[in-house]
Amino acid sequence: MTAGLRQLMILAWPIVLARSAQGAIGFADAAMIAHLGEDALAATTTGALNAFGLMILPMGIVFIVQSFAAQLVGQRDLGGARRYAWYGLLLAGLTQVAAIAAIPLVGLAVAQLNYTPAVQVLLTSYVAIRLLGVGPAVAIEALGNWYGGLGDTRLALLASVTAMIANIGLNWLLIYGHLGLPALGVEGAAIASVIATWLGLAAIAVVFARGYMPGTVRSTPPVEQSGVGALRWPEFTRMLRFGLPNGLNWFLEFSAFLVFVNLIFADLGTLAVAALMAVMQVNSIAFMPAFGLSSAGAILVGTAIGAGTPDLVPAIVKRTALVAASWQGMVGAIYFLFPVPIMALFARDDVAASELARLGAVLLAISAAWQLFDAAVMTISEALRAAGDTAWVLWARVGLAWAVWLPLSLWVVKAGGGPPEATACMVVYFVTLAAAVFWRFRSGAWRHIDLTGAREPQLV
After folding, report:
1. What does the DSSP 8-state code read for residue 262?
2. CA-wise closest residue to 299 among 33, 3, 6, 12
3. Of 301, 373, 400, 404, which has fewest CB within 10 angstroms of its CB?
């Protein structure tokens, strides 16, 4: 194993496990609630999706904290790096206030969607409860990415594993009503997720409050000797300046997916929605490790740029892309070869008689086609984000999602296409997006972006 690959894997394995744990939470929710029927499965999976849609904008913004931390460590400005952790936590607190204020509006919003009355009732309860955990989810992302930028990716793993274990255990208690507790079904799944998220935050927040810094960072001679100092409004707005395009990128692309599920796919029936969402939960198991690898590569990209060695970046990106593509390709092959046994996990009865499993198997096999392109998109987009090239990626993702994917999907469904044809439209999206971000990276425009302001007059 080369030194560069070894460095990537040392950074990547905790992120991979952390993202896998996050994917396992959604997978466990879907598998444990599936026994209550298609209405419960559709409400829980789409509820989790919609709740995530409400937190994805601030999560995308605080993700840029990793880029600032990595570049500032490369510049040996440790006090400045720590301030960005606090900026992320500040945004998380504001997000929780906004989420609580939005709870009374959930019922009105759900009533506009094309779900059956039974699903709407369950969905409203689920989302209203999940909003109580939006703030801590953003805070976990902020602190986890901050520590990742410093080179210690294990703290994000600690938070994710804590949340995963708590979520699965609380699901068992609250969905089914074990140990004398009431069986709350869909609401129980939502309560379990909220409590688990707060426990995950507590795990990483305690470490941060004690002032822990990775050993490699502690041994770095800092430029600033005076510590963190007071928080600085220009720095907070700088985080928003570069983080907002990244957050809008995530939010608007994810909003396109919500439109695809709630307005386009929902017209195909509850069975189709339940099958698609089960497939997406399975896909998250492949997506999260690849995203973790891409994030590890982004840390190395940010550190290289901060240290003034941008010529190392192409090799880092190539190495990361090869590893991520190897993983995604292997998983895609499994999806294509064994879709029926995988989807049987979501069936209430014998797989041969389960319409959900049969349809889900077809959709899962189709999803195998976008795995390699998704790996390329993640790796290159994360590298561009680490360099601060967030605005261009925003326009590429949003433009292709809203101008290509959604119109194509709507036309296919209106023309009589079913769930397989609608799902195939996602393959088109990933292929075109992979080509776009590859072109942008090869252009070298990212080399001229000054993320931290090192080339500007120092902030006071």
Report:
1. I
2. 12
3. 404
Q: Quick one: pLDDT band at residue 56, thresholds 50, 70, 90?
A: confident
DSSP string, 26-84: HHHHHHHHGGG-HHHHHHHHHHHHHHHHHHHHHHHHHHHHHHHHHHHHHTT-HHHHHHH
End-to-end Cα, the chain, rounded Å: 45
Question: Which has the higher per-residue pLDDT, 150 or 380?
Answer: 380
Q: Are 48 and 26 in contact (CB under 8 A)?
A: yes
Token digits for 180?
């004398």
Lowest mean pLDDT among 64-68, 133-137, 272-276, 313-317: 272-276
Collapse the DSSP code of 150 into the 3-class scheme (helix H, G, I; strand E, B; otherwise coil) and give the result.
coil
Supply the angle between the helices 233-259 and 38-74 in degrees, to the nearest 10.
150
The torsion defined by the Cα of 30, 34, 36 and 40, in degrees rounded to 10, comes to 50
Q: How far is CA 452 from CA 72, 89, 382, 455, in A?
A: 7, 19, 17, 8
Q: Which amino acid is at 450?
A: D
- Residue 208: what residue type? F
- Cβ burial, residue 105 (10 Å; 0-12/13-18/19+): exposed
DSSP state of 368: G
Flag whether the pTM goes above 0.90. Answer: no
Exposure on the CB side of residue 385, measured as CA atoms within 13 A: 34
